[in-house]
């Protein structure tokens, strides 16, 4: 007999902006987020019996996020996600799990006349700081922090050779190439007992984000990369070493290709190999390299 084997529902793309105004200094601090809330629990009858008595309206979820943002800190996003997720499993007895995803968008303070401006900001990239906080009734809170959309490129210092060759292979060995990717790096924390424990550990979330971002950028820039696979593994190793409360680290790195253009057809113009200066950026298809490294 058919039955509901899995179900969840919620509110996506809840856009939230919060400003903190320091009356002493006159400086404002702004945070802009996109939030998603998904709930699980004893909700099967809403699907099978049209029983809406078990449904917390998704509009109520949106309103809850706004109220929580007013009443609680929204930074670090790990704490805010844990607070919101905990609210739903504590408020509604039939809700057993709440997953809250928080995407924090970049607003960087402007520098005007060599001084930081008190209330003006700029969006200086598409990179976001992401958090997924899942509160499970009786099982604590699981949090995954992440860097997403960090676009990086280096014009040398990358190679790829000695790979499998067979009748399908056309790619030549390359000992020096452009390497570019859009970094998606995540790290899963050891399970927290409750939101209060998350709050006690709040300072370590910003530090971990800074460490992970620095390791990613420094390793990408300085290593003579034999492959994307090996480079991202080294990044994972370093993050696990520097952030002891993290149980695993994962990367997803699309390989954004830049191909040499043979211009020899135009008066013998050399633009390949050591003479290459003009390239054609490729949008697709692209390599996609993923790995999770666990302590």
General description of the model:
Strand 1 and strand 2 form a beta hairpin. The chain is of the alpha+beta class and about 300 residues long. It has an 8-stranded antiparallel β-sheet with strand order 1-2-3-6-7-8-9-12. The chain contains 6 helices and 12 strands. About 25% of the residues lie in helices and about 35% in strands.
Strand content: 35-45%
What is the spatial order of strands in the main beta sheet?
Answer: 1-2-3-6-7-8-9-12
**Total number of helices:** 6
Radius of gyration: 24 Å
> In percent, how helical is the residue content?
25-40%
Describe the sheet with the most strands: 8 strands, antiparallel
- Given helix and strand content, the structural type is alpha+beta
Number of E-type strands: 12
Low-confidence stretches: none
Q: Give the SSE string.
A: EEHHHEEEEEEHHHEEEE
Mean pLDDT: 97
End-to-end span in angstroms? Answer: 42 Å
Gross morphology is globular
Please describe the topology of this protein.
Blueprint: E1 9-21, E2 28-41, H1 44-48, H2 58-71, H3 77-91, E3 95-105, E4 108-112, E5 115-122, E6 128-136, E7 140-154, E8 179-189, H4 195-200, H5 202-222, H6 228-242, E9 246-255, E10 258-260, E11 279-281, E12 287-294
Antiparallel strand pairs: 1-2, 2-3, 3-6, 4-5, 6-7, 7-8, 8-9, 9-12, 10-11
Helix pairs in contact: 5-6
